[in-house]
Amino acid sequence: MPQGKLKIVAANARTDAPSNVNASAIAAANRGAIDGANKASLKSVFTSLTKNMNVILSFLIKEYGVGSCFKIRCIDIHYATGVSVDTVQRILTKFAYESFLTKRKIRDGRFQGLEVNLKPVCNHYQNFILNEASVAPAAVTGFQPSIVSSINNSTYSEEALKILAVTDEEINSKYPALAGIGFGADQLQQIVKKRDKPRKSLHMVLTSLEFANYEIENGGFKDHKGKPVEKPLGYIFQALLRFGRLDKPEGFKTAEEQAADAAEERLRVLKEAKKREMDAQYEIWLLELSAEEREEILSTKKIGIPDDVFLKNYWRKHIYEQKGGSNARA
Q1: Residue 51, CB-side half-sphere exposure with 13 Å CA sphere
Q2: Which residues form a coiled coil (predicted)?
Q3: Cys-Cys with 253: which of 168, 257, 269, 328 at CB 3.0–4.6 Å?
Q4: What CATH number should be reported for the domain whose range is 2-154?
Q5: Residue 250 reports pLDDT greater than 50
Q6: Mean pLDDT: which of 33-37, 180-184, 195-199 is highest?
Q7: What is the mean pLDDT of residues 180-204?
Q8: Burial, 91: exposed, middle or buried (Cβ in 10 Å; 0-12, 13-18, 19+)?
Q9: Burial of 76 (0-12, 13-18, 19+ CB in 10 A)
Q10: For the chain, what are the domain ranges?
Q11: Rg (CA), the chain
């Protein structure tokens, strides 16, 4: 019987459980009570992490920081790092078990995923990666200028990664009418998955979200017969899935075009105001001009030039421009 009990315990024991020494070092790091022995143990822990563990932990630290509570899905980590969803799930579970982080499943509106908090030991991990010269090559794999690893770059195109980075929160903020009919990050992920592998064009997808939002805000979509589209969500999704774009709506202007229009209008107003100012200053000068001064100025006029034209040119050259645009008289 004792042997049977031992077998049961062994069968249920975790083979990847941290040693008591390493667990104590991690606990000390999370309490902020690190000594020399703990540092050595932490080094052993950090250098034992696999390549995928380093990629994921580095990504989370870089994107969210230590101590902040954030929402994320395993699929988001997959798209950002190239690590498979199943592997992401296993690694997060291991990190939680070893007290690198806490996590819990949550559902917040349309969001369904995890709430994660990185513990202080992650600060020691980051310092170790950045400062230790003797780090094993696998331990530095995750720290790259971009959150997307070289592995991931070979999996998705640059345009696809840009689209996959769009969150439901961004869609709600930038395209509220589109979000209102149920369009979100899930649809974008399906579009990328369908179109990026055979390298079908994706460059108009995000611009098309602007088109769709504009259409919804201005009466909705019309079919080829001019009748209202009954299911705009399906219409938009299928168009982007099949063609990768929507047609530009009549009257739509991009943010850049709107900015250009605003700048042109401001320029027009300023030019008009400047002209009115110059005309007023000239009229004031002309009214204050004595008969003798007027006769003296006109005495230099060539034959054939109208008096009013000559006086205006004289004022601009000798009065306005000389005085920096003021109407001060010599």
Answers
A1: 10
A2: 253-280
A3: 257
A4: 1.10.10
A5: yes
A6: 180-184
A7: 86
A8: buried
A9: buried
A10: 2-154, 161-243, 261-320
A11: 35
